[in-house]
Amino acid sequence: MWNEKMAARAKCREIDPDALFVQGAAQNRAKLICRGCPVRTQCLAEALDSRIEFGVWGGMTERERRALLRRRKDVTSWYDLLTSAEKRYEEERTQPEPVRTGAPAVSAEPAVPAVAHQ
């Protein structure tokens, strides 16, 4: 599902690609490049669906991706799973807060005494 439109929007298009193909502690710095990227989810999905073995993709190292693939063998399309989860998250995040009137909720159940009878 990765395409030229997505690549054109990726944050990493502005850096040296070798910065994403590092090892050790440098991988943590490379993962920071992905933070806030508008196509991070699609990038990660592409790496997982294509079983890309090297480099930081979508904010995850190859080791992290391998571990995720082992844990979730049931996933047939990472693109579908991740993009639908991202969409649900965005919808929930943009929902307005419910209006609260300040009045306590009234229950139809009778009140239970605080002290049990002996």
From TrEMBL:
Cofactor info, note text: Binds 1 [4Fe-4S] cluster per subunit. Following nitrosylation of the [4Fe-4S] cluster binds 1 [4Fe-8(NO)] cluster per subunit.
Annotated [4Fe-4S] cluster binding sites: C12, C34, C37, C43
One of the Pfam families matching this protein, by short name: Whib
Keyword line: 4Fe-4S, Cytoplasm, Disulfide bond, DNA-binding, Iron, Iron-sulfur, Metal-binding, Transcription, Transcription regulation
PTM statement from Swiss-Prot or TrEMBL: Upon Fe-S cluster removal intramolecular disulfide bonds are formed. The Fe-S cluster can be nitrosylated by nitric oxide (NO).
Domain of life the protein comes from: Bacteria
Biased composition (Low complexity): 103-118
GO-annotated molecular function: 4 iron, 4 sulfur cluster binding; dinitrosyl-iron complex binding; DNA binding; metal ion binding; protein-disulfide reductase [NAD(P)H] activity
Ranges where the 4Fe-4S Wbl-type domain occurs: 11-67
One cellular-component annotation, GO: cytoplasm
Cross-referenced InterPro entries: 4FE4S_WBL, Whib
Compartments where found: Cytoplasm
Chain residue ranges for the region called Disordered: 89-118
Main location group: cytoplasm
Cofactors that this protein relies on: [4Fe-4S] cluster
UniProt record, GO biological process: cell redox homeostasis; negative regulation of DNA-templated transcription
Role, per record: Acts as a transcriptional regulator. Probably redox-responsive. The apo- but not holo-form probably binds DNA.
Similarity comment text for this entry: Belongs to the WhiB family.
Name this protein carries in UniProt: Transcriptional regulator WhiB
Organism: Nocardiopsis metallicus
Gene: whiB
